[in-house]
Structure formats: C-alpha cells, structure tokens
Design a protein that fits this description.
By secondary structure, the protein is mainly beta. It contains 1 helix and 10 strands.
C-alpha cells in the first residue's frame, strides 16, 4: 500500500507526540487543567487615526491535552479601550478564545485558534472634559466580534498547579461598525498570567 506525503507527515507527527509524551507528563502538565487568569489588553482597529488603548481582562481557563498537544478555552470579562485624537472609547465584552496548543518543549507553547466576543452594557466615550455612555447601536457599533488568535505561552509547575504566562495577538474578522459604508475590525494584543490546577 502506497502512502501519501500527507499521511507520512501525520504519522511522523503522531509518533513524535507519543514518544515525547512521558517527558511532558513528568514536567507537570495535567490532562485537564483549570484555573484563573488575568491580564492587560491593548486594543486598536484597522481605522486610520486610531491607536491602541490599554484595558484589562480577568476570567477562567481550561486546558485539555495529552502530551504536547492540547486545546485551551478561556472566558474573560474584558474592558477594552480604543483611542483616537478626540478621546477614548471603552468597550466591555465577554471574550472567549479557543485555541489549539503545541508544546515545543515542556514549558513553552505555541497556540492558535479563534475567538468570539460579545459586548455587554454600554459604550463609554471619554475625553479631557467629560464622559458619555450610550448603547452600542447609538454609538454606531455592533456588539459581536470574532476573529483569529495566535500566541506563545509559558507554563511553570509550582506545587499543585502551574503558573501560566501568555501573550497573544487577536485579528478581528468581524465588521463591528454599525454604519453603512464603514468597516471597523479590531486588533489587540493580550498579556495574561494565571494559575492552573
């Protein structure tokens, strides 16, 4: 039976994953880990004249894996800020990234996947003199955002769990503009730390 290059590549990857799995298990990576994560986020858009504003996020994380391969799913309460010459626009979201992860070495991971975000509450615009809150529709924005995400992670075993540090880039695919003829896509960088058990 003749095997294709694709089948040979998959077989080699599976063999590598199985052969190296004991090393990852001894490094403290559990098949199922969960815990708390929090961090900062820098959010901008594809629009000229806007710049990234600094916000924060906090939530819970789940990691399911076998050896070097796994899936990470988190859910965050995120406060994002986008700046332009007129002031700052603050968005509150429930942010859910789901990523595949591969551990290059027992403590270093590369990740990639997608995210979904849903706006909650109102949008707040603030400048040097005042602050105004309005609904997403009145602000000319849609509540829903989704896109691609990729990053690097570091996991250090500590006692009964692991300290995790992550950096990821989020590339928004959804048009969050509610104004016809205008397209707004988000771009953000997240830096997150947490404890998984």
């Amino acid at each position: 039976m003749k095997t294709t290059l694709r089948q040979q590549t998959l077989l080699r990857l599976a063999t590598f994953a199985l052969a190296t799995a004991p090393g990852w298990a001894s490094a403290g990576l559990n098949p199922i880990s969960y815990g708390f994560k929090a961090g900062i986020t820098s959010t901008g858009t594809n629009q000229a004249g806007t710049s990234s504003g600094l916000g924060y996020m906090a939530g819970i994380g789940l990691d399911i894996g076998a050896g070097p391969l796994g899936v990470m799913a988190d859910i965050y309460y995120a406060k994002r800020k986008i700046s332009d010459v007129d002031g700052d626009l603050s968005l509150t979201q429930i942010f859910v990234p789901v990523q595949a992860r591969y551990s290059l070495i027992p403590m270093l991971q590369v990740t990639g996947g997608g995210y979904y975000a849903s706006g909650i509450g109102d949008v707040t615009f603030s400048d040097a003199s005042n602050s105004v809150s309005q609904s997403y529709a009145d602000a000319g924005l849609r509540r829903t955002d989704y896109g691609l995400t990729a990053g690097l992670g570091f996991s250090l075993p500590i006692g009964v769990g692991s300290l995790v540090l992550e950096a990821r880039y989020n590339w928004g695919l959804a048009d969050i503009s509610g104004i016809e003829g205008t397209t707004i896509n988000t771009r953000s960088v997240d830096f997150v730390a947490g404890i998984l058990y």
